[in-house]
């Protein structure tokens, strides 16, 4: 009878307790999480580094918004001051728009008053005419300084934009539709018509019958 020798099973070696190096333990440690609320109201977690970055961005955005707000307030105040100043200037312009014009007319008035003061029953017609002519020249110069130009279209083509025809008459040698007489001069102010010239216009000769 064959005897078999008992065989010894290899004993399982006990597992050594796992030990980690302190540095390895520090590397494996999870980062500190910070809770935040998302747009939908749900709570989300972000790590500290992301949170700090977001906080820095928020602080910069708030600082920029504050800077823009201060710039807006400054610009608004400046615009308000400009508006008030412009209103005052417009009011003054309305009040004193004719100040310079009448300043130029005063010498004309002085000349007329002086002429009346020296007038007598034995007025020299020649001197009177010279005085009136001088006064008219003063008035013309004063008006021209402010852009007033007379419209005296004698002999010119009739222009309904500048002239007002009072009548049409046959005028033998005159070209038809030309001004043959100016009853009242017109005037332009800076090329804008303020009064048309009242004129009489040449009429074309009637065609012979037959």
What's the short story on this structure?
The chain is of the alpha+beta class. 46% of the residues lie in helices and 20% in strands.
Write up what this structure looks like.
The chain is α+β, with helices and mostly antiparallel strands. The protein has 4 helices and 8 strands, in the order αββαααββββββ. The strands form 3 sheets. A 3-stranded antiparallel beta sheet has the order 3-6-7. A 3-stranded mixed beta sheet has the order 4-8-5, with no helix packed on it. A hairpin with a 5-residue loop joins strand 1 and strand 2. Among the domains are: 44-96; 147-205, Head domain of nucleotide exchange factor GrpE (Nucleotide Exchange Factor Grpe, Chain A, domain 2). The protein has helices at residues 22-28, 48-96, 99-118, 125-145; strands spanning 33-37, 43-47, 148-151, 163-170, 179-184, 186-189, 192-195, 197-203.
What top-tier CATH class of the domain at 147-205 fits best? Mainly Beta
The string of secondary-structure elements, in order, is HEEHHHEEEEEE
Task: Give the number of helices.
Answer: 4
What fraction, in percent, of the residue positions are helical?
A: 40-55%
What is the distance, rounded to the nearest whole angstrom, between the alpha carbons of the first and last residues?
173 Å
Alpha carbon gyration radius = 52 Å
What strand order characterises the main sheet? 3-6-7
Shape: elongated
What would the CATH topology of the domain at 147-205 be? Nucleotide Exchange Factor Grpe, Chain A, domain 2
CATH architecture label name of the domain at 147-205: Roll
């Amino acid at each position: 009878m064959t005897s078999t020798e008992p065989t010894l099973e290899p004993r399982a070696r006990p597992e050594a307790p796992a030990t980690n190096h302190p540095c390895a333990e520090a590397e494996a440690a999870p980062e500190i999480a910070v809770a935040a609320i998302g747009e939908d109201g749900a709570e989300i977690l972000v790590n500290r580094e992301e949170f700090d970055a977001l906080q820095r961005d928020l602080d910069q955005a708030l600082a920029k918004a504050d800077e823009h707000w201060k710039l807006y307030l400054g610009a608004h105040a400046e615009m308000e001051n400009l508006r008030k100043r412009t209103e005052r200037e417009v009011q003054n312009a309305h009040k004193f728009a004719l100040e310079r014009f009448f300043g130029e007319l005063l010498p004309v008035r002085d000349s007329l008053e002086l002429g009346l003061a020296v007038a007598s029953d034995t007025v020299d017609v020649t001197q009177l005419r010279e005085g009136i002519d001088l006064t008219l020249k003063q008035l013309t110069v004063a008006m021209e300084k402010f852009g007033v130009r007379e419209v005296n279209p004698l002999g010119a083509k009739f222009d309904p934009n500048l002239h007002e025809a009072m009548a049409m008459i046959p005028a033998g040698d005159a070209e038809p539709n030309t001004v043959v007489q100016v009853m009242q001069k017109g005037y332009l102010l800076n090329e804008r018509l303020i009064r048309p010239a009242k004129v009489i216009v040449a009429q074309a000769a009637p065609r012979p019958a037959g």
